């Protein structure tokens, strides 16, 4: 067993003699050497010493090393480090003005290649474990999975909303209908007419969403209008609510 931490705890009030500490030897030996000039105690004081061993999960330790000290997200190549060995992710490196957030030394362009190499051999749980995902993935495959994880929170598509919805697509649809009063539409066709007295005067606007329920799936329809130079622009786009792979099965037409 690998011993990462050794702690000696005395059960008496204190130790009169210093207990030798050896990193690779946890046995405490008490030697009573007779010396002609030193009177010997016929009843040497005895001590009970409890040796407490604690181990550190190596995977947990490396996982902590792979955590950026600024954003606390997992770091992916390129992982940067300062001259003192403190690491930081590539995104946060540009935010700290090339200064190490730990020791304030200049970061430079030093890559932590050793940590990047170690990460290749590790497997970690999905970050949505608390939401129900039980998958374990190689470190560099974890991001790809988390982007399509069925347990990931959905960003509410309603304009101006910053809600993160923890649940499935039907739960997100219920949120749009009940909390944002979004119009619901059944069927695969939709007609919309926008009428304005002066079509050259367009105020920037985003229409309320319309949610389609067709082919057993849900879709979000967005309308926008804005002024581009001197010409008014009207735009509509459709978003599939579900897995990216399933989205490839559908096409939409404007006419």
Query: What characteristic shape results from the CA principal axes?
Result: elongated
Q: Spans of 5+ residues with little confidence (pLDDT < 50)? A: 1-39, 41-57
Q: What number is the mean pLDDT? A: 73
Find the count of extended strands (DSSP E, 2+ residues): 14
Quaternary assembly: single chain
Structural class by secondary-structure content? alpha+beta
Radius of gyration: 32 Å
The overall number of domains is: 3
List descriptors:
single chain; 255 residues; alpha+beta; Herpes Virus-1; three-stranded antiparallel beta sheet; 6 helices; disordered N terminus
Summed up:
Residues 121-181 form the SIAH-type domain. One of its GO terms (molecular function) is ubiquitin protein ligase activity. The protein is of the alpha+beta class.
Describe the fold and architecture.
- The protein has 255 residues and is of the alpha+beta class.
- The protein has six helices and 14 strands.
- Strands 10, 11, 12, 13 and 14 form a five-stranded mixed beta sheet that branches. A three-stranded antiparallel beta sheet has the order 4-3-5.
- The protein is elongated, with a radius of gyration of 32 Å.
- The protein starts with a strand and ends in an 8-residue tail after the last helix.
């Amino acid at each position: 067993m690998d011993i990462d931490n050794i702690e000696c705890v005395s059960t008496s009030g204190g130790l009169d003699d210093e207990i030798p500490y050896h990193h690779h030897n946890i046995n405490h030996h008490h030697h009573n050497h007779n010396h002609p000039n030193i009177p010997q105690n016929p009843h040497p004081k005895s001590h009970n010493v409890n040796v407490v061993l604690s181990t550190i999960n190596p995977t947990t330790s490396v996982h902590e090393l792979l955590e950026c000290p600024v954003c606390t997200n997992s770091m992916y190549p390129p992982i940067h480090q300062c001259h003192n060995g403190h690491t930081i992710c590539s995104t946060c490196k540009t935010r700290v003005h090339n200064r190490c957030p730990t020791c304030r030394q200049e970061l430079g362009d030093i890559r932590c290649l050793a940590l990047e190499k170690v990460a290749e051999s590790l497997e970690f749980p999905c970050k949505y474990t608390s939401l129900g995902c039980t998958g374990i993935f190689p470190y560099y495959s974890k991001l790809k999975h988390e982007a399509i994880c069925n347990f990931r929170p959905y960003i509410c598509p309603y304009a101006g909303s910053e809600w993160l919805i923890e649940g499935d697509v039907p739960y997100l649809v219920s949120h749009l209908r009940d909390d944002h009063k979004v119009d619901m539409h059944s069927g695969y066709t939709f007609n919309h007419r926008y009428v304005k007295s002066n079509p050259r005067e367009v105020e920037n606007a985003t229409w309320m969403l319309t949610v389609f329920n067709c082919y057993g799936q849900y879709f979000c329809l967005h309308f926008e209008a804005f002024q581009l130079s001197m010409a008014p622009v009207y735009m509509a786009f459709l978003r599939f609510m579900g897995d990216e792979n399933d989205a490839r099965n559908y096409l939409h037409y404007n006419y």
